[in-house]
Write a structure and sequence with these properties.
Blueprint: E1 2-5, E2 13-14, H1 15-21, E3 30-32, H2 40-44, H3 51-59, H4 70-82, E4 92-96, E5 99-103, H5 113-131, E6 135-140, H6 144-153, E7 159-166, H7 172-179, E8 186-192, H8 195-207, H9 209-215, E9 217-218, H10 225-241, E10 249-254, H11 259-269, E11 274-281, H12 286-293, H13 317-324, H14 329-342, H15 348-355, E12 359-363, H16 366-380, H17 386-397, E13 404-408, H18 416-423, E14 444-447, H19 450-457
Parallel strand pairs: 5-13, 6-7, 6-9, 7-8, 8-14, 10-11, 10-13, 11-12
Antiparallel strand pairs: 1-2, 1-3, 4-5
The structure holds pyridoxal-5'-phosphate.
Pyridoxal-5'-phosphate binds near residues 113 and 308.
């Protein structure tokens, strides 16, 4: 498989290079040159198959054989999904006659990012060993991504990982999930500043060419193609379990960066029948506004109870736009330049008509989110996290959706304050993390100052 940049002006690359590069050199995102097709029989055979077998069927066409052979890829996938603490990896839980939760939070850090990052860490290790290279991964986090990236990279050969977080500004659960990992290649840096300061420091490190090349800097952020394709797998798993390809269903996806729902779109392009994607947002609703009216204009980010979706620029949306523009890289590059400069996408009006065939947006505010958490607890005795509640609340508003699968993106214990506020019950950590508050922490606190941080990383 070859990959092209959405902006049409970067080299065409194979899987290995796309994995290591992340962003394309022209500022675009890599997408496969064509969509591999799975047959109706391929999809039928997924019902009841082990997760890693479905993963093999879905992911194999995206990775060249000479990068990773069949036997090795199978081994890698079996090893990756064995670390999840549910035998089905992503089990379905029925909520009512037509609604299911797809639980994506059974990985080491209790959020769906583990599903992709656990595979990414192993792919990096494999390809770096083959090439005799090593990388230094640097990233900034306000919560979920940092811990998932650290868990994915811990003790992996040829990788050092440095994660910056704003000192005193992440929740205790989230901080401890990062700082209690006991591995010599994991380095937590608490910056005396805000999340934006952390992001600026990371950007500055990447923009320092000497530093970047000396340390072979790399990132595992949400635009990495391998993360998308790893997420495509569970759409097939859930679809096949509920009757695909002979029935189509609606997927409801709580989203921020559009990564998770775009992975569903990829499944659809590969042959999974989908009735509709319901894109659920909190009050940071740029995507909902676009799907409703074609208005894609940036607004200030407002903190919400579902912080992992507090985003105004959904980077992976560019991949969908590329297809909506019939894959014209130069047209897309122009639209993005315009968007960055003016804060709104002027081509939006026509594109939203196209997008509306498959996507609908729904917005849920904090009060509605708390009400959903409370109602689910009262009727089913089940605790759900605020991101999942945004999705479930959006699903309840949809009519004619048919069989509906809501993606449950985090374990309730990851956001205990919101859950307790809604229900009066504080969710317990699952057994694998039960002693989190007793484990020793390791981190270095540094001033918000580039030179000092660079010296530390060196
Ligand atoms: C990252 C995250 C999201 C948003 O996912 P995107 O791929 O950015 O749309 C939703 N819920 C949780 C719990 C997350 O960690």
């Amino acid at each position: 498989m070859q990959y092209v940049s959405t902006r049409g002006a970067a080299p065409i690359l194979g899987f290995e290079d796309v994995l290591l590069a992340g962003l394309a050199r022209d500022g675009g995102l890599y997408v496969p040159q064509h969509w591999p097709q799975l047959s109706a029989d391929d999809i039928r055979a997924m019902d009841g198959a082990p997760y890693h077998d479905v993963a093999f069927t879905v992911i194999r066409p995206f990775i060249d054989d000479d990068a990773i052979g069949d036997a090795e890829l199978r081994g890698l996938l079996a090893e990756t999904y064995a670390v999840f603490d549910h035998p089905a990896v992503t089990p379905l839980r029925q909520m009512d006659s037509a609604t299911w939760l797809l639980e994506l939070f059974h990985g080491p850090t209790l959020a769906f990012k583990d599903i992709a990052l656990q595979l990414l860490g192993r792919l990096f290790e494999r390809i770096l060993a083959k090439r005799g290279e090593s990388v230094t991964i640097v990233g900034a986090t306000s919560g979920d991504t940092g811990s998932a990236a650290i868990e994915a990279c811990r003790n992996r050969d040829n990788i050092d990982i440095f994660i910056l977080h704003p000192s005193g500004r992440v929740s205790e659960v989230q901080r401890r999930q990062m700082t209690t990992v006991d591995a010599s290649n994991v380095h937590n840096i608490a910056i005396e500043g805000t999340f934006d300061d952390c992001q600026d420091l990371v950007k500055a490190m990447f923009n320092d060419a000497t530093f970047r090349d000396d340390l072979n800097l790399s990132a595992v952020n949400s635009i990495n193609w391998a993360r998308i394709v790893a997420q495509t797998v569970y759409y097939f798993v859930a679809g096949a379990a509920l009757g695909a390809p002979d029935r189509e269903m609606t997927f409801v996806v709580p989203t921020g960066n559009f990564g998770n729902v775009y992975a569903g779109y990829v499944a659809h392009r590969m042959g999974l029948p989908v009735k509709r994607f319901l894109v659920a947002s909190n009050r940071n609703d740029i995507l909902t506004r676009f799907f409703e009216s074609g208005d894609m204009s940036m607004a200030p980010v407002v903190p919400s109870l579902s912080p992992s979706m507090d985003i105004q620029v959904s980077s992976n949306f560019e991949r969908l736009l590329f297809d909506l523009l019939d894959r014209h890289g130069s047209a897309l590059a122009e639209a993005m330049t315009d968007f960055r400069a003016s804060g709104s996408l002027t081509a939006g009006g026509n594109l939203h008509v196209l997008a509306r065939h498959l996507f609908t947006g729904r917005r849920r505010d904090d009060a509605q989110t708390l009400a959903t958490i409370r109602a689910v607890h009262e009727t089913l005795g089940l605790l759900i996290d605020p991101h999942t509640a945004v999705g479930l609340g959006a699903a309840a508003e949809a009519d004619g959706a048919g069989k509906t699968i809501v993606l449950a993106t985090a374990h309730p214990a990851k956001f205990p304050d919101a859950v307790e506020k809604a229900t009066g019950v504080r969710p317990a950590l699952p057994p694998r993390l039960a002693d989190l508050f007793d484990r020793p922490e390791r981190m270095s606190t540094l001033p918000n100052e580039l030179a000092g941080v660079q010296e530390f990383v060196r």
